[in-house]
Amino acid sequence: AQSVTQLDSHVSVSEGTPVLLRCNYSSSYSPSLFWYVQHPNKGLQLLLKYTSAATLVKGINGFEAEFKKSETSFHLTKPSAHMSDAAEYFCVVSGRGSSNTGKLIFGQGTTLQVKP
Amino acid sequence: EPEVTQTPSHQVTQMGQEVILRCVPISNHLYFYWYRQILGQKVEFLVSFYNNEISEKSEIFDDQFSVERPDGSNFTLKIRSTKLEDSAMYFCASSVGQGLSEAFFGQGTRLTVV
After folding, report:
1. Among the four residues A80, B70, B76, B92, which has the most C-beta atoms within 10 Å?
2. B81: Cβ contacts below 8 Å, ≥ 6 apart
3. CA distance B46 to B61
4. Which of A34, A43, A105 is closest, CB to CB, to B91?
5. Predicted confidence (pLDDT) per residue in B30-64, tens digit
6. Is a pLDDT exceeding 90 seen at residue A57?
């Protein structure tokens, strides 16, 4: 079975400083991993995805994530936070295997606060 | 840019009443999903739908829930007799394929059962 654990429920950074949102996954299969962002009163938007190609994945708005199989991690980073990055971030896994139906399994979410 | 649209954005209903949440997926997508997020909790998978039938459902998706694609464009979630614990944000999603394909989400319907 697949699962994801987001290690921080709340992260606060100052504008212009780096962002690190941590995610660990568990999967019986080679996983597909995603980061989604949810701004207030908006739907879930895909930031980036890992699907067994390059381990360093670049996404929208300057975000990137590195897949580390040895650490079962897929942490999300950004060199310099912007006020507009304040949102809820979800680490998500989609398993492969005989029963793969595209079902996504979400982490608990991390609220990113950006202070001026 | 194509998007998944959900209506209504907010629905208030009395306990025991039936509700239908509506979604219009992206037109060339073949896989459709419903998820829900109870306030303060994680987003949970409810059901996936492909080729006019359910391909997977979670334990949450009991006999009170049903899904339908009545006219080739809409994708609906029906809750037959709502309970207080059904209060949540319900998200519809669609994708071209499964697994590796990006799922596009709607803005959600906030269901409040009173």
Report:
1. B92
2. B16, B17, B18, B64
3. 6
4. A43
5. 999 999 999 988 899 999 999 899 999 999 999 99
6. yes
